[in-house]
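Recap for those who missed Tuesday's class. We walked through two folding examples back to back. For each one, the amino acid string is listed first and its predicted C-alpha cells come directly after. Nothing is annotated here on purpose, so try labeling regions yourself before you check the end of the notes.
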Amino acid sequence: MTVFRCKMCGANLTVTPGMEICECESCGTNQTLPKFTDERRVTMYERANHFRRNSEFDKAMNMYEQILNEDRTDAEAYWSIVLCRYGIEYVEDPSTRKRVPTINRSQHTSIFADEDYKEALKCATLSQKSIFESEAKTIDDIQKGILEISRKEEPFDVFICYKESDSEGARTKDSVIANDIYHQLTREGFKVFFAAITLEDKLGQAYEPYIFAALNSAKVMIVLGTRPEYFNAPWVKNEWSRYLKIIKSDPKKILIPAYRDMDAYDLPEEFSFLQAQDMAKIGFMNDLIHGIKKVVNADKDNKPSVSVNVPETVIYNKINEGTGVEQALKRATFLLEDGDWNSASTYFEKALDLQPECAEAYVGKLMLEYGIRRREDLSKQTKPFTHNEHFVRALKFADGNLKKELEKYDNDVILGIVASLEEDFEKAVTEKDFETLIERAQIISYHDGIDEFVERCENGKLISHKEMIYSSAIKIKETAKYYEDYLKLISMFGQITDYKDSTDKIAECNEALDRLSATDSKCVICREKEGIKTFVPGDPAKCCEKCMMRLNLLYMNKGRRSDACTGSIQYLSERMQYIARKTVRDRIQSIIDTYTDSIPEFKEKQAEQAIALEKPVREKTEYELQEEKRLREEEQRRRDEERRKEIERQKQIIIEKNAAYEYDVQVVIDKASGGTDTDMLRHVLAQNATSGWKLHSVVIDKISDGAPIGQTILVFERRIKAQDGK
C-alpha cells in the first residue's frame, strides 16, 4: 500500500501497485495516478505536487522534468507539466462542492496543441486518456473565456509587479512604493496596470483575464521589492517569469528590476542580465520616467502609417544607405550612455555588419555584456576579460592606442582582483573561507604570484582545520568526567601534536586517566551515559566484551595507540577474565543444583550424609573444625583450577580448529566544515588494501554532542590462519 496525496485537495489517497486511477474520498475527484516504481519516485511526485498546489509552477515543472528524464513514458508527468504551464489551480466550487480548475497562466495557444499534452495521451492507458481529454476540454473552455475578455481590454504601457501583503496579511512597504510610482507615471500620461487600483472594480471576478491582457500589452514591466523573498513570492514570480517568456518573442518589451534596502546581488538569478535600478538613489524616478518614455515613444514612432504601404526590404535598404559605420557607432554610444541596451546592441550589430573587423563595436558589445555605460568603467570590473569573446576580438582588431587601452583595463581588473583577494585573506578565519579564496584565485591562475597566494591559502586552511579540532577538544575537556572522555581527547589532540600545546594536553589527559584507573573499579564504558553507574542488565561478561569491542573501535588508531589507551584495554581485559571465571563457576553450580534436585535418590543420600556428619561435628574441637574448613577450601580451589584448565583447554581446541583473524582500526577526522574527508578515506582504503587488509565495518561517530565535527572509524580484518590450522 502506498500513501499518495490528492493533486486537487492534498488529502491522502491509499493506492496499490498497478492502479491507474483513483477517487479521492475527501473531494470526490476521479484522478489519474503516476507510475509508482519505488519510494524515491513517490517522494519526487509528492514534492512536485506540493510545489504545484502552492502555485510554485516553475519549481514543480523542473521536478516533473527530472521524472521524465528517468522515464519518458510516464503519462502523469507529461500531464502535470501541462498543468504547470497553464498555472492550473483546483479550487472548490461553492455550489457543487467539487474541485474545478482555474487558469493562472493563460496562453495564446490551445491546450489541444500543446506537445506535452499530446505525449500524455500517447503514453496514457484508455482510462487515463479519458480523464485527460475531459479535463483538457474544461481547461480549453475556460481559456477561451479568458481570451475573449482580454481582447476587449485596452492596452497598457506599464505593468507594476510587487508583493501587496506580508505573511501576516499586513500591507508591505513595497505596496506603498508601488502606489507612489503608479501615481507619478499616471501623471506623466502612461496607462499603468497596478493591481490594487486597476482590479478594485473587478471584485468577485476572476483576475486572470485582466492580468493576461495587461502582461501581453504592456511595453514595460517594473518589478520592485525591498526584500529578496518578496521577489520570489509565488504570485510575484508568476507574473515576472511570464513576462520574461513574452520578451523572448517580443524583444521590444523590457523588464526593469527596482530594489531598495537590499543588495543588488540578492535579486533573482533570472535578472542577472538586466540593468537593475536602486530606488534609494537620487533621481531614480526621473531616470525611470525617461527610460519608459523612450520605450513607449519609440514603439509609437515605429508604427507604420496606414496610408503608406512600403515593403520592409525597401525600408531596410534606405536605413543602410544613410548609415555608415561611424554613424552607427556614434548612435550606439549615445544609446549606451542612456542605458538603452537593446537599441545600442542593434546599432553595434549594424556597425559589425558593415565592418566585421570593427574593434570599437566589439568594445561596445563588451560594455553591454558587463552592463556599463562608460568605457573607463571597464577597469572597475571584478572578472578578467582574458577569455571574453568580445574582448579577444576587440584586442585582435584594435590599433596601437586602443590595444594599449584595453590591455590597461584588463591589467587594472587583475590588480583589483589580487587586492580584493589579499584583503579577504586577512579576514579569512574558517577552512571554508580559504577554500573560497582558492576558487576565486583560479580565475587568474596565469597571473604572477597567484601560485604563492594559493600556497598561503592552503597553509591557512590547514591551520584553520587544526584550530577547529583544537577548539572542539578544549570544549570537550572542560566537561570531561569519565575514562572515555579523556580517551577521545587523546585521539583528537593526537591528530594535531604539532599545534599549540596539544602535546601538553595529551599529558594532562594521561594523568587524568591514571587517576580514574586508580579509583574506578567498574567498567567505564558501561557508564557512557551520565547517571548509569552499574553494569548493563544481563550477562556481565558479555557486557564487558561489548565494551571492549567499542573501545577498540574508537581508540585503537593504527600507529597512534597511546599508553593510556593500552592501559585501559589491559584493565578491561583483566576485568573480563575475572567476570568470565565467576560466571562460569556460577553456571556450573547452577547445573549441579538442578541435576541433584531432579534425582530423588541422590538428594536423599545427600540428606543422610548430612545427618550422619552432624553429630560428630558437634564433638570436634575448634581446631579440627578449622582444619576441615581449610581442607575443603583447598579442595575447592583445586577443583576450580581444574575447571579453569579444562575451560582453557576447550577454548584452545576451538581456537586451533577455527580460522584466526587479526583486526586493525583507523580513525579519520571529518573536515572542519562537518563534511566527510573523502580524500583521506580513499588514501586509507588504498593503503590498507595493498597490505592485504579487508574493510570489515564502518562506524560513524560524533566526537561529542557539542562538537561541530565527527569521525569515521574503519575496521579492517586480515586472516592469519585458515580453518583447522591450515
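Example two. Treat it independently of the first, because the proteins are unrelated.
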Amino acid sequence: MKTSLLFGIHCHQPVDNFDWVLEEAIEKSYKPFFKILKEFPQFKCSIHYSGWLLEYIEKHDEELFSLIKSLSSQLEFFTGGYYEPVLSAIPSVDRVGQIKKLSNYIKKHFNQQPKGLWLTERVWDNSIIKDLKKCGIQYVVVDDYHLLTSGVKTENLNGYFLTEDSGESIALFPINQALRYAIPFYSLEKTENILESFSNLDGKNGAIIFDDGEKFGIWPKTYETVYEKNWLRDFFAQTLANEKISVDTFEEFYTNNPPIALSYLPTVSYFEMGEWSMTSNDTLALEHLLENNPEAHQFIRGGTWKNFLTKYQESNWIHKRYIELSKKQDTQLKYKDALYKAQCNDVLWHGVFGGVYLPNLRDNAFKYIIECEKLIPSKREKLDIDFDGYEEYKYNTSELLTIISLKNGGQIFELDILEKNFNLQNTLTRYEEAYHSKIEINKEEELTTSLPTSNDIATIHDNKLIVDEDISLITDWYFKKSAIDHIVPSDTTAIDFYNSSFHELSDFANQPYKLKKYKAKTLTLTRAGGIFTDKKYETSLEKKYKFVKNTISVDISIDTEFETPLQYIQEWNLHFASLENLTFNGMIITEELKSEPYTLTTRCLEIYDSYLEKTLIFSFEKEIEIIIFPLNSVSQSEQGVDLTNQGLTFGFVHPFTKTEQNSLQLEIR
C-alpha cells in the first residue's frame, strides 16, 4: 500500500506591493521554508513563483535567490503568467507573451524548461488550451472541484486527467481539498492519516497539494506553528519516514503514470471564488441553499470569475482599459512590460483578501495603464471602452487625460495626472457585500474559531468578522466618480448627503446623456430628463466640458417646469494616496473630517497634496457651500474587517428655482 505525494507551493505578491509586505513575506515565509527544505534533500517540491516576485527577490535578497538556485535539483519549477494575470482574462497574444517570459526567466536562472503551469486562481476556461500548448505546457494544476463539476467522483481524483479543445489536449492535476485545508493547519498526526488514506496496492494514487506558500508563515498564527513549533520540519521528516508515502514531482508522476480518464471542464474556479463573485443577495441565497442541501455542492458553481467584472465597475474599468491598450499593441518593450504589469490579477476581484478594495493595488494598475498611454499618446478618442454599449470620450492635453462616460450620468470616469502616473478618479463605489450581515461588535472576543482538536489552527476562511465599535455600512446607488448631477430638496443637509439618504428628485446622476457637440477641446452633453415629485416635471440639463492644458471646466445649464426652490449639487469624488498628505485652503485635515462631513463656504477651494506635490484648485463664479466627507469602504481581509479610505467626496451646492447656470473650473498645478 503506497501513495505518491505531489507537493507544491505557489507564491505571489501583487506588482509593486509595499516593500514592507514583501520583506515580511521573505523573512517569515519564503526564506524559512527553503532553509528547512534544504535539510531534507530527498523531499521533492514543486514551486511556482510569479515572475515579478522572483525579480524582486533577485534584486533585493541575494541569500534567498541563491538558496532557491541551490535547491534546483529537488525542485520542479512551474511557469505561468509573468505578472500573474488570470490567463482567460487577457488577450491571446499577451497570454503567450507572459508565459514565455516567465519560462525563459526560469530557464535562464534555474536551468529548467517548465512543463507544468500554475493557473492563476485556478480560473479554467477551455479557450486557453491552444496557447498553453504553444508555450510547451503539458500539464496544469486545477482544483478537485473542477473535476467534480464535470461529473468525476471524489474517490477517482487521485491522479491526472486529460482534456482537449479543438484537438489540442493537456493534462489536469486536481488539488485535493482535504489536503488544501489540512496543510499546515491540522496536526501532524491528522495530516499523515489523510495522506495515508490515498494509499492503494499498486502505489499509483497521487495525493496532490499545490497551495499558497504564504500559508507557511504569513497567514495569521502560521509562523508560530509552522516554524517556531517545527510543524514544517516535522512534516518533512515524518513524510519521508513513512513507507506508505513516496514524494514525487508532478513531472515524475506524469511520466510514469497514465491518465485516469478524459474529462471536459466548465468555465470554473475553486468553489469559494464562484461564491465571492456573486452579488450579495445571490451569495446569501447560495449559502442558504447549501446549508439545506449539502449533497448538492458539486452541482452548484455560483458565478464565474468574470462575474467580478460585472459586480465591481472598478474591476471592469481596469480590465477593459488594458484590453483597449492591448489592441493597440506597440513594439516598444517598455510598452509591453507596462501592459503586462497592468494585467496583474489581484486588483480585479475580492474574496478573503482585499483585492479591488485596496487603493494601492488600483493605483499600481493605473500607473502602468498611464505609462502605456504616454508611450502612444493621442489627442482625443471616441470608443466604447467598458463594453456597456455607450461611447466614452477621451481627451489628452499632454498634462491631463480625462475620460467621460456617456452612459453613467456623463461622469468623469478617469482623470490622470500624466506627469505623476496618478488617476484622481481611482475611487471605489461602496458596495453591499454578503459578509456585511455577519460583522459583529465585540471588544473582548478574539478572532478564533472552534476546530476539531486543540492542535489545529484556524485558516483565514474561519475568521470571525469582529469590530471594536459600530461602523457605518453605507452603500451607493450610483458610481462614485466625478461631475455627477444631483437635484435635491432645498432642506437637504450635509449629513443626508454623507449617509446617501438624501432624496434624489431627478434622473441625471446615473442615466445616459446624449452627445451634442464633440470638438477638439470641448465636449457638450445633454439629457432631457425630469424632476419627480407628485408627477414628472420636464427638466433638461446641458453639461459642457472644456479641456485646456492643466485645466478642466464644467458649465451647467438647467431648465425645469418645477417652480419650487431646489438645490443642484455637483458631486466630485477624488482619490488621494493618503488624507494625511492634504490641506484645504492651507488647513490640515482634522481627525473629524476622516469620519464625518465638513462644510465650508468659499469661492475657491485649494487642495494641496504633498504626495503628488500638486495643488488642485476648484474655482466658482460666486461663493458657494461645499460639503466634504470621506469615502470609506468596509471589507473583509485575511485579518478580519478593514475600514479603508477610498477618497473624498465634494458636493458643490447651488440653490436654484426654475433655471440654473453655473461654472466650475478645476486647475491642477
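Answers for example two:
Confidence is low (pLDDT under 50) at residues 445-454.
The two ends are 74 Å apart (CA to CA).
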